[in-house]
């Protein structure tokens, strides 16, 4: 059996707003929205990978708060784990630095205004429930 590789995703929250990031690459994912994040490097703790990925992709200083229960299959051998996260005090606001061409803060009533990547939908549903938003 192939060893699974964990990809971390951040449900970055600012009050009741969730950050969504639109993919610019690869072509098959471009234009769809996701929770930002990336692969855990060998020997790296998943929550540390989350902080690193958010720094690289969005130029922010964030902290992982709580893991969202569950894991979601991606292309073999990858699986998605999601954490809620928040900006650290004094962090600059997020910018689309790599792999994304637009960022949007979504309020609970607008969480489903963007076409999420299929693998992110279960985690967004979980976050929606926590924010008291309409489920999809």
Automatic annotation (TrEMBL):
Belongs to the Nudix hydrolase family. InterPro entries: MutT-like, Nudix_hydrolase, NUDIX_hydrolase-like_dom_sf, NUDIX_hydrolase_CS, NUDIX_hydrolase_dom. The keyword DNA repair applies. It comes from the Bacteria. This is 8-oxo-dGTP diphosphatase. Keywords: DNA damage, DNA repair, DNA replication, Hydrolase, Magnesium, Metal-binding, Mutator protein. It catalyses: 8-oxo-dGTP + H2O = 8-oxo-dGMP + diphosphate + H(+). GO terms for biological process: DNA repair; DNA replication. Transmembrane segments: none annotated. Its cofactor is Mg(2+). Residues 3-131 form the Nudix hydrolase domain. It comes from Streptomyces seoulensis. GO terms for molecular function: 8-oxo-7,8-dihydrodeoxyguanosine triphosphate pyrophosphatase activity; 8-oxo-7,8-dihydroguanosine triphosphate pyrophosphatase activity; 8-oxo-dGDP phosphatase activity; 8-oxo-GDP phosphatase activity; metal ion binding. The keyword DNA damage applies. Its EC number is 3.6.1.55.
């Amino acid at each position: 059996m192939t060893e699974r590789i964990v990809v971390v995703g951040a449900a970055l929250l600012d009050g009741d707003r969730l950050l969504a990031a639109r993919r610019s690459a690869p072509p098959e994912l471009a234009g769809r929205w996701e929770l930002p994040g990336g692969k855990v490097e060998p020997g790296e703790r998943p929550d540390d990978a989350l902080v690193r990925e958010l720094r690289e992709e969005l130029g922010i200083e964030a902290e992982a708060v709580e893991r969202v229960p569950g894991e979601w299959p991606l292309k073999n051998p990858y699986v998605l784990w999601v954490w809620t996260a928040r900006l650290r005090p004094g962090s600059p606001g997020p910018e689309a630095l790599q792999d994304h061409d637009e960022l949007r803060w979504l309020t609970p009533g607008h969480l489903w205004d963007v076409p999420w990547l299929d693998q992110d939908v279960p985690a967004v549903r979980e976050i929606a429930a926590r924010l008291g938003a309409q489920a999809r």
